[in-house]
Design a protein that fits this description.
364 residues, alpha+beta, 3 domains, 4-stranded antiparallel β-sheet, two-stranded antiparallel ribbon, 14 helices
Length: 364
């Protein structure tokens, strides 16, 4: 992803009058999610007797506007008309002039809860007129409980995290969250919105430590996240089964013990492969285990044989001193002729009895 997909960016749109191509600032997935979480955090603090919540007042306003699209919103000196309400913006027409203008719904929400000062700018009176209209609604609502929200980023090491998060890489720290003593906000470059990360938003990133791209993991990511190892769990209920006469938990444990000896613990096979096994293990070995081991050991089939046993890896015997190569005068030809050659036996090439026998050999 990019910053424009994750936080905010300028995107093309045809929602303008006449259907012609235009451009608008559109929120990315993280900013969208953060605004939802922030609403819950703000409403859980401010929700008490006699206070109307923004979402409730906004829903009441939309209902009234849909009934009467010519609804006039009063300002201190004049009035204006709402022409369109989009997901993130309000289009309106001033009492005088023909140019169209917009108001940010997120900014309106911040003004409503007084979490952002209303600066002196050309649209202040229009924001104030809408706020006065929203506060006229007396919507009774129940108490809003504070909830925890989780944002999961799969394969977080695949992107340039400091570039994708941009200025928010600092705001996700615990001490910089909204409500913290050292809380910070940032002015976003495209929309100009003041943005902060609420304290009830938790970010989980997943990665595979066997992946070579982890070696160059961004320092900004390492410093701001706690790294928690997720090793294979052999006690899972789904592994307490027997297939082909072999206990799945013991099978996985045996394979991983040998991989750890030959490589390291970062290359252990996860339990999900065997949780997927329904009635047999053919597809697990054919499509998952054996290709993975070939990648791990870079074609060193002797080591694959140390993991899987002689039922899956065969040592090919050539006649010693036999005429293996073409006739050519090469000093090391005899040494190469004695070199051991290994060949994989895939489950697809085995009979059911041969596959069961190979599993028993693997388990010793």
């Amino acid at each position: 992803m990019s910053y424009e997909d994750f936080i905010e960016g300028i995107k093309p749109t045809t929602e303008t009058q006449g259907g012609s191509l235009g451009y608008e600032v559109r929120d990315g997935v993280f900013k969208n999610f953060s605004e939802t979480v922030r609403s819950n955090w703000e409403e859980s603090k401010l929700d008490r007797a006699g206070i109307t919540l923004f979402d409730d007042a906004w829903s009441a306003f939309i209902e009234e506007w849909e009934t009467d699209p010519t609804l006039q919103i009063k300002t201190q000196r004049s009035s204006f008309t709402i022409t369109d309400i989009r997901s993130k913006a309000i289009a309106f027409q001033k009492a005088t002039g023909t140019s169209a203008h917009t108001l940010s719904i997120n900014t309106l929400r911040e003004f409503f809860y007084q979490t952002r000062p209303m600066t002196q700018h050309g649209l202040k009176s229009y924001y104030q007129g809408l706020l006065d209209k929203l506060r006229d609604y007396k919507v009774s609502s129940e108490s809003t409980p504070l909830k925890n929200f989780v944002f999961i980023i799969d394969e977080i090491n695949r992107g340039n995290v400091s570039q994708i998060f941009g200025e928010l890489i600092t705001l996700i720290e615990d001490s910089k969250r909204l409500g913290a003593p050292e809380h910070l906000t940032a002015t976003l470059p495209y929309s100009g919105d003041e943005f902060g990360v609420p304290p009830n938003l938790y970010i989980l990133g997943t990665m595979n430590t066997a992946d070579r791209s982890v070696e160059a993991l961004d320092t900004a990511l390492r410093r701001r996240f706690s790294f928690t190892e997720m090793p294979p769990v052999y006690t899972l209920l789904g592994l307490q089964r027997t297939l082909h006469g072999v206990n799945l938990a013991e099978l996985l444990r045996t394979i991983n013990m040998r991989i750890e000896k030959l490589l390291d613990r970062d290359h252990l096979i996860g339990h999900s492969y065997f949780l997927e096994a329904r009635s047999d293990l053919h597809s697990v070995f054919q499509n998952k285990i054996m290709p993975l081991l070939q990648e791990y050991f870079f074609g060193d089939y002797g080591k694959i044989g140390l993991v899987l046993g002689g039922g899956f890896v065969e040592r090919v015997q050539h006649a010693r001193g036999g005429n293996v190569f073409a006739e050519f005068d090469y000093d090391e030809a005899s040494d190469l002729a004695d070199r051991l050659v290994y060949r994989l036996h895939t489950p697809d090439s085995m009979s059911p009895a041969e596959f069961d026998q190979a599993l028993r050999q693997l388990m010793g």
